[in-house]
Inverse folding.
């Protein structure tokens, strides 16, 4: 494993970091990341640094490689080139569950809940590594089991309540409405105690009022838990309103980075989304 | 205590324990009162064994979501380990239930160890592939125990994989005789011990299911990728379920082996594995009480129909089809739910009346 110098965020070098993140180690530090599938280069020279309390967006046309990038960041794919540092630790060669323990949690574009389990149990699965109770203790139902379960129930309910899901705690996750399932996935990711959370199209399938609600919730998550959020989204209203920094990818490469205002007027972005103007 | 009873899981677990205990007490009472025919007496221990096998397989198939067709192999390991241990301890441990219990524990541990070793290569696979490979390993286990020669004489224990040069001193005793199996086993199994086995199995499986580990196992079943993403080591939890299931099957096997005077390895073949799987499927995937009931009924049914001779397997098949229809057909399910709603409606009304 390569040894990296510890990096801290210096505010003047890049104007996108929030002031409060200055002098701190980035939660996510991606260097020159790339992956090839056979002869196809899906992602190439992808660089990004995420401050500890930053909300950033990743946008790009369909098939640009956004979800592939998320899969690289969470260890689902092993990169062909480059490295991903979560809280300063290289995730190279780590299985997905260990990468999660480093402090990176995610949601999925096509919802992946534990559909046969209740909403509460879904959240408690997220808290798996936090519940301190040995195999033997739960098998023999020792007092420590009841203590751990009670504490887990309480925290899980608090988290559900935070996203306004306390009412559905006892319902099967698979039977919940689509928008609720999306929010439940966020709660489950939060339950793993992450320092950065990746949201893959959190507003997909939501109606405008649900999306507005989601925007508030995303900000509230950052402000309450003091974590970074990195999201993929096609809903430009949400991206432009919530994100403090945006990276645009096309054909697996970053074509623009900047504040929402900069991105909106960037000619390369407009070209990627709308196509090139004919000059005749 | 009241809080405990309000918990849905605890309540449904208590129901299961209650059903099993009542069944045991009734059968034991009838047995002591001499109301059972000798063939019924013969059913008691195997019923307990099959309940235990069905519940432990349900842990793997219903709760972990992995189809295994090699359960009888683990049962066989347990049976022969139990027979050998019981024979070796014949003089050392005079108390029969204790000797039986030790034999069951050793059978369980060996089967669990076999489960672990097999699990390392096998659990890399999923779904149909896993089913096929467990089937093969089940047959391999059966053939291994079917080719073991174990004997005891003045020099000590002799173990061999071939009959050639396998000779015992005078007065020595053959415990396992290769394909012939074990003969002259001292029957140790009793119905109360069977009940204890069922209780142990239920205790382990039910407590496991409603714990952190059980949730992780169910999460792996429902969505493997999501389970990994929240920090669950998928391989480790599939292995845990596999080993626990094999351990319980081994214990049940030991009791089964010590219930007959002779036992051949051919008993632990594919057919037995499928039978256990049928109990699990008909009882409902992940439904523990269902496994208990279906194992009991489906074990007794073909035996009870023996008087019908040739027609009994046809009847057995018809029953299987009917049960399938009743549990899986959407129309029949709808009908059943309407009826149960009405019944529970009556009860709810009463509750409101008494409360108000």
């Amino acid at each position: 494993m390569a040894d990296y110098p510890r990096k801290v965020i210096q505010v003047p070098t890049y104007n996108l970091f929030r002031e409060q993140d200055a002098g701190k180690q980035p939660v996510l530090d991606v260097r020159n990341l790339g992956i090839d599938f056979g002869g196809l280069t899906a992602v190439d020279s992808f660089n990004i640094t995420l401050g500890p309390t930053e909300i950033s967006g990743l946008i790009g046309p369909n098939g640009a490689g956004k979800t592939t990038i998320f899969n690289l960041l969470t260890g689902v794919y092993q990169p062909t080139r480059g490295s991903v540092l979560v809280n300063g630790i290289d995730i190279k060669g780590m299985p997905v569950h260990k990468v999660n323990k480093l402090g990176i949690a995610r949601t999925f574009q096509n919802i992946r809940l534990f559909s046969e389990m209740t909403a509460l149990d879904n959240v408690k699965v997220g808290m798996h590594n936090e519940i301190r109770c040995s195999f033997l203790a739960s098998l023999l139902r020792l007092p420590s089991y009841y203590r751990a379960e009670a504490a887990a129930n309480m925290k899980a309910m608090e988290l559900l309540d935070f996203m306004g899901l306390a009412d559905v705690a006892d319902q099967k996750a698979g039977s919940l409405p689509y928008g609720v399932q999306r929010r439940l996935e966020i709660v489950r990711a939060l339950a793993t105690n992450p320092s950065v959370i990746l949201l893959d199209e959190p507003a997909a399938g939501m109606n405008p009022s649900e999306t507005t609600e989601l925007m508030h919730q995303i900000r509230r998550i950052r402000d309450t838990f003091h974590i970074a959020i990195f999201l993929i989204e096609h809903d430009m209203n949400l991206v432009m309103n919530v994100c403090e920094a945006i990276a645009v990818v096309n054909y697996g490469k970053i074509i623009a980075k900047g504040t929402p205002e900069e991105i909106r007027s960037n000619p390369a972005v407009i070209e990627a989304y709308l196509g090139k103007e004919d000059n005749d | 205590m009241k809080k405990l009873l309000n918990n849905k899981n605890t309540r449904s677990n208590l129901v299961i324990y209650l059903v099993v205990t009542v069944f045991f007490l009734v059968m034991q009472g009838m047995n002591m009162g001499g109301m059972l025919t000798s063939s019924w007496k013969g059913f008691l221990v195997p019923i307990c064994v099959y309940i235990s096998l069905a519940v432990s397989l349900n842990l793997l198939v219903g709760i972990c979501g992995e189809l295994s067709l090699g359960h009888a192999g683990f049962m066989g390991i347990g049976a022969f380990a139990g027979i050998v241990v019981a024979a070796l301890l014949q003089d050392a441990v005079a108390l029969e239930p204790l000797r039986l219990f030790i034999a069951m524990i050793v059978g369980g541990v060996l089967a669990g160890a076999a489960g672990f070793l097999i699990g390392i290569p096998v659990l890399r696979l999923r779904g149909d592939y896993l089913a096929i490979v467990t089937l093969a390993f089940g047959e391999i286990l059966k053939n291994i125990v079917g080719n073991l020669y174990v004997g005891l004489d003045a020099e000590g224990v002799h173990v061999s994989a071939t009959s050639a040069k396998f000779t015992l001193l005078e007065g020595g005793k053959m415990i396992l005789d290769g394909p012939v199996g074990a003969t002259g086993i001292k029957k140790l199994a009793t119905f109360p011990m069977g009940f204890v086995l069922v209780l142990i199995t239920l205790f382990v499986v039910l407590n496991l299911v409603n714990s952190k580990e059980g949730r992780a196992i169910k999460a792996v079943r429902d969505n493997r990728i999501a389970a990994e993403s929240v920090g669950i080591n998928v391989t480790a939890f599939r292995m845990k379920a596999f080993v626990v299931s094999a351990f319980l099957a081994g214990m049940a096997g030991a009791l089964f082996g010590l219930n007959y005077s002779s036992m051949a390895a051919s008993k632990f073949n594919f057919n037995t594995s499928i039978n256990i799987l049928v109990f699990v499927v008909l009882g409902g995937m992940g439904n523990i009480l269902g496994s208990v009931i279906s194992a009991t009924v489906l074990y007794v049914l073909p035996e009870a129909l023996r008087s019908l001779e040739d027609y009994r397997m046809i009847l057995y098949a018809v029953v299987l089809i009917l049960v399938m229809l009743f549990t899986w057909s959407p129309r029949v399910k709808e009908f059943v739910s309407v009826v149960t709603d009405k019944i529970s409606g009556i009860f709810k009304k009463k509750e409101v009346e008494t409360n108000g």
About this structure: Chain A has ten helices and ten strands. The longest strand of chain A covers residues 40-50.
